[in-house]
């Protein structure tokens, strides 16, 4: 985890008049520390031991605040559950069709697609999303045995 980025996130919230509650601090810290792409329910389950009075609604409300502040992004991979991550750099996701494990990867050439699409259609491209599906190494080793 990049502690400097997390501090910048806390400062941004403070400068925008958003009070830093212990739950808000824990949720944002968890998102900045994890390499997974958790759902709100997964975040809740991970933190409920520390905050027994926290509800799933509290997690959702804080995720909305973080998203509106551009500190996290919400991801949908077609399974009807939003996932969240603090990695705001341009990157892509590869998803295991068997267990649902998600990993980030970067490949700068994919951004060339935006330039081609803009040139061919006249659209002003704002963003794109690339999802790649396969079977992760763990699932491959299980099916081989």
From TrEMBL:
GO terms for molecular function: DNA-binding transcription factor activity; transcription cis-regulatory region binding; zinc ion binding. GO terms for cellular component: cytoplasm. It comes from Tepidibacillus fermentans. Manganese-dependent repressor that controls a regulon of oxidative stress resistance and iron-storage proteins. May act as a hydrogen peroxide and organic hydroperoxide sensor. Binds 1 zinc ion per subunit. Binds 1 Mn(2+) or Fe(2+) ion per subunit. Keywords: Cytoplasm, DNA-binding, Iron, Manganese, Metal-binding, Repressor, Transcription, Transcription regulation, Zinc. The keyword Transcription regulation applies. Its cofactor is Zn(2+); Mn(2+); Fe(2+). This is Fur family peroxide stress response transcriptional regulator. It comes from the Bacteria. It is found in: Cytoplasm. GO terms for biological process: negative regulation of DNA-templated transcription; regulation of secondary metabolite biosynthetic process. SUPFAM superfamilies: Winged helix' DNA-binding domain. Gene3D superfamilies: 3.30.1490.190, Winged helix-like DNA-binding domain superfamily/Winged helix DNA-binding domain. Zn(2+) binds at residues 96, 99, 136, 139. Belongs to the Fur family. Fe cation binds at residue 128. Its main location: cytoplasm. The keyword DNA-binding applies. Coiled coil: none annotated. It holds the Pfam family FUR.
């Amino acid at each position: 985890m990049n502690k400097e980025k997390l501090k910048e996130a806390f400062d941004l919230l403070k400068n925008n008049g958003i009070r830093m509650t212990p739950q808000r601090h824990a949720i944002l810290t968890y998102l900045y520390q994890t390499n997974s792409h958790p759902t709100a329910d997964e975040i809740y389950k991970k933190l409920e031991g520390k905050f027994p009075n926290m509800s799933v609604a509290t997690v959702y409300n804080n995720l909305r605040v973080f998203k509106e502040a551009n500190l996290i992004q919400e991801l949908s991979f077609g399974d009807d559950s939003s996932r969240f991550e603090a990695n705001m750099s341009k990157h892509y996701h590869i998803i295991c069709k068997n267990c649902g494990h998600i990993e980030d990867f970067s490949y700068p050439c994919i951004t060339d697609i935006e330039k081609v699409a803009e040139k061919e259609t006249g659209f002003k491209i704002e963003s794109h999303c690339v999802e790649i599906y396969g079977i992760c190494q763990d699932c491959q080793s299980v099916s081989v045995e």
